[in-house]
Amino acid sequence: MKGNELKPRIGIFGRRNYGKSSLINYLTGQSIAIVSDVAGATTDPVRKTMELGGVGPVVWIDTAGIDDSGQLGRQRVEKSLAELKQIDLAIILLANNTLGDPERNLLSECRLNKVDFLLLYAQADRVPPTPQYLSSIETEFGSKPFAVSVFDAQGRDALLSFIRDALPESAYRHKSLLGDVLSPGNRVVMVTPIDSSAPEGRMILPQVQVLRDILDNDAIALVCKETELQRTMASLSAPPDLVVTDSQAFALVSQIVPDEVPLTSFSVVLARAKGLFEDYVKGTPALDTLRDGDRVLMLESCTHNVTCEDIGRVKLPRLISRHTGKNLQFDAVAGLSALERPVTDYALVIQCGGCVVTPKQLASRLAPAIDAGVPVSNYGLALAYLNGIFERSMRIFQKQ
């Protein structure tokens, strides 16, 4: 699941019996979606990962019909539209020379969620599009639909190329995490505590991602636990060019690492890479304005077993309460689950590093809070602020 969440996601939307399931089978070259003449055969989104030339692996999502009716049908439509908060591109099917409220409402939702879309005229072998229809679509939406028939094997490559060109590059061309602050030969010390919340026999994903990025930039990584940091620093003939630590160890690490050595955390690095860094920087000082009775929302992008050393549910709330001296309420929501109360009920939202979600998913997750003027922060920046090293944790990035 984690691997899929980091891949570009392409959703296929349209009315019932417009051939969405047939199209996804056609695109993937496999029978993965149920195809039926009975309207509403697809009830829940169906996902399939497939390589897209020039992009890499992408997740295709087949959705229920946007014209479904009845109480259950409306729930299916809502579930389909919810996918717009997670996808990078929407493929909208048209057919039968028809355009109505279902399509216009869907296109409006795409714009609202800032999702790129392309129009496909499906089942062109059954009812070909008329020139007048194509012209009216182009006039209203600024682009002409791509006509497709799933029985035309020769047209598959052209369609995949059309989709690839429409997919935003930001969905699959990920910028380096540290490439703009590292030079070949630089030495980076990675501090990776091992406690009860650490996974058995492996490193957590943010640590792996940063390690890979260091190597990709021809720099040198030295990895140690926080208990071995002092010995590691003493063993070096010269200070390292950067120290990246787990945010939970900020207090100890900042005391060991000289002030002239750049220091940040895995969570801060990821926050910067995901595209909401300025919002976090602006929102984090709201920690000082919390009052008795305020609610703080802790957003975790992944789901995991909660332990007594859990950062989002135990350690960070405890530190915030101690820092403010206030009686606060903390709610935690994992994955991309819906919030149980309006986001405006919260005085502050604190998001984890987001290592298992795409920038699009993270932006959609936090957009309601940002749009409502609710301050947002990040685990790493919040911990840096609480430990009095907020500016220091960002110093290496602000030089750029």
Note down, in words, how this protein is organized.
There is one protein chain. By secondary structure, the protein is of the alpha/beta class. The chain has helices at residues 2-5, 20-28, 70-82, 101-112, 131-141, 156-166, 205-216, 229-235, 250-256, 266-274, 277-283, 311-324, 359-371, 379-386, 390-398; strands at residues 9-13, 46-52, 56-62, 89-94, 116-121, 146-147, 187-191, 220-224, 242-245, 263-265, 295-300, 329-334, 348-351, 376-378. It has 3 domains: 2-171, Rossmann fold (3-Layer(aba) Sandwich), CATH 3.40.50; 187-269, Rossmann fold (3-Layer(aba) Sandwich); 276-386, Rossmann fold, CATH 3.40.50. The chain has 15 helices and 14 strands. Strand 2 (46-52) and strand 3 form a beta hairpin. The radius of gyration is 24 Å and the shape is elongated. It starts with a helix and ends with a helix. The relative contact order is 0.11. The mean pLDDT is 88.
